[in-house]
Structures are given as structure tokens and as C-alpha cells.
Amino acid sequence: MAMFVHIAAAARVPRIRRSGISRVRKALGSFPGGVFVVPVVPNFFLTHQWVRELRRGNAGPLVGVYARIPDGERVWVGHYGREHQWTSAAEAVALFTTGRDLLGWEVVVPRRIAAGELHQIRRLPQVVGWRYLPGAHGRKPCGCDFCQRGQYGARRLRVEYNRQWTGPNDEQ
Q: Can you give the three-state secondary structure of 84-131, one letter per residue?
């Protein structure tokens, strides 16, 4: 059986222990709906790459919920925002151990994960992984109003962004 980790809010741990991980997202378009997970591989950073990005929009600490999924079960695998494919859980783990450029990849189990399938729940370091998108380090963030919605330092970013997009003759 393949081991996967689901990143969840620490406040939900009692509920998860009692009834498992319920369906997190509903089906929409080509997305089948289900629970987002990442295979557990020897590379700790790769396994827990989503922690820092998910931490940005979450109040409180996050935990890793480890679960065993049968090897032959179909899962949906791919890079966030790109084309996904259906594979078995064992093939998803193999992809994560042998593939290249795996930052931003995700696996979706198209059902809830029962409490009996849970293996362990652990506290995780809250600064593991990438923010915004893989490879964003060293690139300036977008300063538009949509991307900077009330976050720390957003005002300064928006002023700089507007100055960049308006020429000297445009200012009134």
C-alpha cells in the first residue's frame, strides 16, 4: 500500500481522527473532486512542499495526515494548473521518486479517506516548501489588486506596481 500525506489544519485533527478525511473539493469540469495528497518519498521537502503555500491562507498551524492507499487505486496526478492524468497510486509514488521538476505536483484521491486508512498525524515545520508558485524565489510578486488582497506589505507593492504601469505623463 502506498503512503500519502494530506496537509490539514491542526484544529481539524480531532474530527479527522474520528471520521477520516472527508471530500475536500467537489468535482468541477475535468477535475474529479476528492482529497489532495502527496506521496511520501525519501525527500522530505518534496513530500511536504505544499505546507508553506497552504500556510499563507490558513489561520493556525498545519499538520501532516498520513494515510495508506491501495496500490491499484486510481488517482489523478499532475502539476497544479496543468494537465493531469489518471494513474494507480503505486505509479504516482514511482513518478514522485523518479520524475524531474516535481515541485507543484499534486495527487487527488477521488473519494474520502476513512479513519481506518489513517496511519499517523504529525506536526510539521511550518516553513517547508515554496510560496506563491514553485521557482518564485527572486521574482517580484504581482502588485495588482486581485493578487494582493489585504496581505502584509500589499500597499507598498500596489504603489510600486501602479508606478511601473503608468508613465510620467499619465500621473495627474
A: EEEEEHHHHHHHHHHCCCCCCEEEEECCCECHHHEEEEEECCCCCCCC
Q: pLDDT tens digits, residue range 42-83? A: 888 888 888 888 887 777 899 999 999 999 999 999 888 788
At which residue does the C-alpha cell 502584509 appear? 152
Give CA–CA dist 165/18, Å, rounded: 52
Position 132 in a domain: no
Domain containing residue 40: CATH number: 3.20.170
Domain that holds residue 67: 2-123
> 82 with 21, same domain?
yes
pTM of the model: 0.77
**Number of Cβ within a 10 Å radius of residue 51:** 24
Domain co-membership, 91 together with 163: no
The 3-state DSSP class for residue 76 equals: strand
User: In sequence order, what are the beta bridge partners of 8?
Assistant: 63
Same domain, 12 and 93: yes
- Among 144, 137, 154, CA closest to 53: 137
